[in-house]
Amino acid sequence: MIAMSKITEDGRFKLTFVVAEQCLLRDFLKQHQLSKRTITATKYNGGQLLVNGVERTVRHKLLANDLVTVIFPAERTSDGLRPEYGKLTVLYEDEAVLMIDKPPGQSTIPSHDHPTGTVANDVAGKLLKEGIPATVHVVTRLDRDTSGVICIAKNRHIHHLLSEQMIATGFYRQYSAFVEGHVNQKRIVIEAPIGRKEDSIIERRVREDGQYARTDVEIVKHFTVNGFKYSQVNLVLHTGRTHQIRVHMQSIGHPLIGDDLYGGSHALLNRQALHCSKLSFKHPLTGESMECESKMPKDMSFLSIDEDNQRRT
After folding, report:
1. For residue range 204-236, what is the model confidence (pLDDT) as tens digits?
2. DSSP character for 256?
């Protein structure tokens, strides 16, 4: 059954359901994927479980057409995440989900090297400004130098639902990239396990004892500029291993342009030429198909211009 979502006057997230048949409230909440941990937090940390507007325990017996309302506790911004007010390019937003078009050169979440200026910092500032007491729940993230669509849940329960969806059916994630050399095959399916490189905490490589990983590759066009050969490709991820596209393309001898960590040259671009162009999934509350697209940024789109036009640009 579809849940109706709303933000309360004090900024808390609220879901309302219509009961179809008699059952206990506890079982009803379980049917709607509210975990035991979430229910406990709702009861004891400032949330409410209401039936027809009256607060009830999970042992309450529901009748058909009852209205069940779950008001989730206010969340607190994570320690170390300082709200900031940088520019965000919002592709889609509702009470549950926020889709952002991330530019290259911006980290998704804070790290030791980049504690501020991240997408998460700016989203925390946006939520604070709008009076929504929540932390930032990043569902899909991109490397600092990778651009494109990312998905953020606006509360813990929605994050849980989207994470479960990713495990069960996956998101559809399409990327655009430019790789070194002319890739001869029109389509390639790369199924190669990925694990950590022995002497590095950052690098990954294809290794037999790694985690299963699959990337589908489709060649769009070949280019030659000043004798440098490269290919434009579209890629679809079936798994989400760290640096998956970068490692897989290196493993077949076609590293991403600009990706010096995995053998790519900076001759045409000083960051990896990788962009998340499309992200699709089912909305966690309505079940409707969601799809967000993003155009390649200028530094990458320049690579798709033929040599004569590049010289004139």
Report:
1. 999 999 999 999 999 999 999 989 999 999 999
2. B
Concatenating the DSSP letter of every residue in 215-252 gives EEEEEEEEEEETTEEEEEEEEEESS--TTHHHHHHHHT
Read off the pLDDT of each residue in 73-81 and give the average, rounded to a whole number.
87
d(CA 172, CA 160): 18
Is residue 44 classed as helix, strand or coil in its secondary structure? helix
DSSP for residue 107: -
Q: Dihedrals φ, ψ of 291, to 5°? A: -145, 125
For 147, the enclosing helix (H) or strand (E) is strand 147-153
In terms of residues, how long is the chain?
Answer: 313
Burial class (CB in 10 A: 0-12, 13-18, 19+), 263: middle
Q: What is the number of other CB atoms lying within 10 angstroms of the CB of residue 276?
A: 24
The dihedral of CA 165, 168, 174, 179: what is its sign?
A: positive
Handedness of CA 17, 20, 26, 32 (dihedral sign): negative
Instruction: Indicate which residues carry an active-site annotation.
Output: 143
- pTM equals 0.90
User: pLDDT (tens digit, 9 = 90+) per residue, 261-301?
Assistant: 999 999 999 999 999 999 999 999 999 999 999 999 999 99
Other CB atoms within 10 A of residue 169 CB: 10
Strand 137-138 and strand 90-93: the pairing is: unpaired
